[in-house]
Amino acid sequence: MITRINNKKNEKPRSSYSFGFLKDPRTRVVVGLIFMLFSIYLLVSLAGFFFTGGMDQSLIDKEARELVTNPNIEVGNPGRKLGAFLSDLLINRWFGVSSFIFCYLLFIIGLRIAGRNIKKFGKKIIISFVLIIWISLLLGYIFNFLPSGYVFPGGAHGYFVCFWLNSFIGEIGSFFLLVVSFAAILFFGFENAFNRCATLVKNYFARRAQRKEERALAREAALARRQEDMAKAKENEEQQQEEKQPEEEDEKEELNVILAESPTEEEFYSQKLDETDTGEPEEPEIHKPELDFTTERHFDLSTEENHDKRQERDENTTPLANEDIELTVMADKLEEQLTKNLMPDTEYDPTLDLSNYQYPSLELLEEHSSGSPKVTADELEENKNTIIETLRHYKIEITKIKATIGPTVTLYEIVPAPGIKISKIKNLEDDIALSLSALGIRIIAPIPGAGTIGIEVPNQNPEVVSMRGIIASKKFQESKYALPVALGRTISNEPYTFDLAKMPHLLVAGATGQGKSVGLNAIITSLLYKKHPSQLKFVMVDPKKVELSIYSVIEKHFLAKLPDSEEAIITENEKVVATLNSLCIEMDSRYDLLKMAHVRNIKEYNEKFVKRQLNPNNGHRYLPYIVVVVDEFADLIMTAGKEVEQPIARIAQLARAVGIHMIIATQRPSTNIITGIIKANFPARIAFKVASMIDSRTILDSPGANQLIGRGDMLISKDSEMVRVQCAFVDTPEVDAITKFIADQQGYPEAYALPEYVSDTENGVSGDMDLGMKDPLFEEAARLVVNTQQGSTSSIQRRFSIGYNRAGRIIDQLEAAGIVGPFEGSKARQVLIPDEYSLEHILKTVEERF
């Protein structure tokens, strides 16, 4: 009877659900299974977010209707669209990494619904929610001080709540609050946690007291042993002294006897005198000069013997060996003399081929600025007073403030009173911008090496920085850089120049219309003003076909291209891939030349060649610098993908020493475009104004680019420092005038020829495919393409559930077999076979040939 009552009590919670449809056990099992499977689905999606979240971010930001109805939108998350949306919602917008606890919650809820009895179910639910919030706050607190990428580890909740807490109670107060809340969660949420902690503390102090007592006893025992050892040592010393006394007395007696028997000094000299008179000297036993003489003589004899042996070895040496050595030396001298006769004493001048070449003059550039700042004294005083009053509202006193006027931005350097925290001023960025009615300010806290805090405020009347003034500056004209670049003016109104050869590669990114193309023109123009055509060549890639086409007229002076290419400005993706691979071949050949010349870089190699220390008959030649300019890198990645990224990464990793440098520009600074490989090999980066802080972190690994004012305002990250520069403005008519001035002069017969590159797919079916290389899905893919009349990599990838690389290889094989047409950018490939009957004939022909 008792057993039946207990069973009923135990079964009551399983059937007491507030939802009527859950009373059926079958329904509970199905619903519980849904919850458990959904928790696993969510876990996989959340884990995939850390690998594909950056690439999927721009896709899931679309409207929900388009995201659901459009099947062409593909995301990389393992959970696809729903998984990408949920993971971005939970991790990026809500609670960050702690959102993984939701998977645990859904799983135990599913177990409970399915009928599994879970102890303290309600308490586990409450503790899980509390832990989600607490971990989010903890990560938000930590990563407020540490830089992070496009993901907030604590989510938007943790970041903004901790940001508010830090401004309200400070970082120390926030830390104490986190510690107290953790103790509360630990003691009240987990049973016996308090008792265990108290026991641990008690045991710790007990063990500490016990160890202290044991150390005291050990010290006493050691002291006692030491006293015993000292007493024994003293007894042994006394015993040894007693034994030595009789021996010392015997030695003294023997010494006295010897002294008594030995002759005195007078007796000794008298004895020597008697021996001299008799003429029969007897050598005393005390002196034995023969011993010393004999030893010296023996040494001389041994030396003579060694000399005789060496002489015998020299006589026995084969004369043929000596003759071979002499002949080798004579041959080397003859070769050296012939080399000197072939090469004149004067140094080689690479500019002699175009000895009449004239550098562009400053008159080709226009003066867009007046050269004097347009910030009035009233504006400076008003801004100073506003900054001081705004900070005083928050109880922040300033001891000193000074202003540095730039072309578009004025830097106000302040020294806060002692005891003021820097982070407190940093958090007032938006408040100061509001009080100044400025477009956007940027706070540098602190300024490296200055001991002050900087507040950059845009000028009411910004000045246009002229390229003519930068080119004419003394700093640029007297620079000894290998590849000098003049980019603009800093906040202190100084010309900003750098050496592209030491960068060694440059990444330029920014939103559309913020000055990216003008920046590229400024870089190219400054190089054209300082380098001779024999010293520098450009490889220009322009998918938009309009940005860099203005430089096509200087093809025979400064441009490099493939031998079979008609246009020097590369616009087609196939030509881009071929050109980049050709540059890899050029890089390898240059490394071979450096190896033969026993030098480490292009500078040392060219110095040797100029001094005529390298023979052109052995393949040596003067190596010009090659600068690769790629505009709209995002378009290349979207259309060509790995085919472009791999050679670019290889050039960026290795080509610095051989004088090949890259400048990549993009208007889409997302993580799927600016990948980890690109960022690792492009340490120098330029960021124009971007739309969000995430884009700024993607480019510079830090915020700031989203607070620029646009129109050429940029941040340059180089050598672990950030510099704000106003880009020099060079208009299209000015660039046109410069290129026309160069093109009107005598040039080389043709553009600089890069090594020839033959791709794997250019040799047709017989050269590219064989039976071993043909993909097992080749025939099925061919039938799919012909039946659907749609030849695209993505359709094959979706139909056969394979990766992009394998689908791309199948498309290349279909092209080689004549089933689909060549690559046409973003368009699908043309299907050349009209029906399946014709396809069978093609497949039979392919099978016979392989």
Description:
With 850 residues, the chain is of the alpha/beta class. It is built from 30 helices and 15 strands. A nine-stranded mixed sheet has the order 6-5-14-13-12-7-11-10-8. Strands 1-2-4-3 form a four-stranded antiparallel sheet. Strands 9-15 form a two-stranded parallel ribbon.
Order of neighbouring strands in the sheet with most strands:
6-5-14-13-12-7-11-10-8
The major sheet is characterized as: 9 strands, mixed
N→C terminal distance: 84 Å
The counted number of beta strands is 15
Notable characteristics:
alpha/beta; disordered N terminus; 55% helix; 850 residues; nine-stranded mixed beta sheet
Describe, in short, the structure shown:
The protein has 850 residues and is an alpha/beta fold. Helix content is 55%, strand content 10%. The strands form 3 sheets. Strands 6-5-14-13-12-7-11-10-8 form a 9-stranded mixed β-sheet. Strands 1-2-4-3 form a 4-stranded antiparallel β-sheet. The protein has a two-stranded parallel sheet with strand order 9-15.
Which helices and strands appear, and what pairs or packs with what?
Elements: H1 2-15, H2 25-60, H3 64-69, H4 80-94, H5 101-114, H6 121-142, H7 155-189, H8 193-261, H9 265-278, H10 289-316, H11 319-342, H12 377-393, E1 398-405, E2 409-416, H13 422-426, H14 429-436, E3 442-444, E4 453-458, H15 467-472, H16 474-477, E5 484-490, E6 495-499, E7 506-509, H17 516-530, E8 536-541, H18 555-558, E9 560-561, H19 573-597, H20 602-610, E10 625-630, H21 633-640, H22 642-654, E11 660-666, H23 676-681, E12 684-688, H24 693-700, E13 713-718, E14 721-727, H25 732-743, E15 752-753, H26 764-768, H27 778-788, H28 793-800, H29 804-816, H30 836-849
Parallel strand pairs: 7-11, 7-12, 8-10, 9-15, 10-11
Antiparallel strand pairs: 1-2, 2-4, 3-4, 5-6, 5-14, 12-13, 13-14
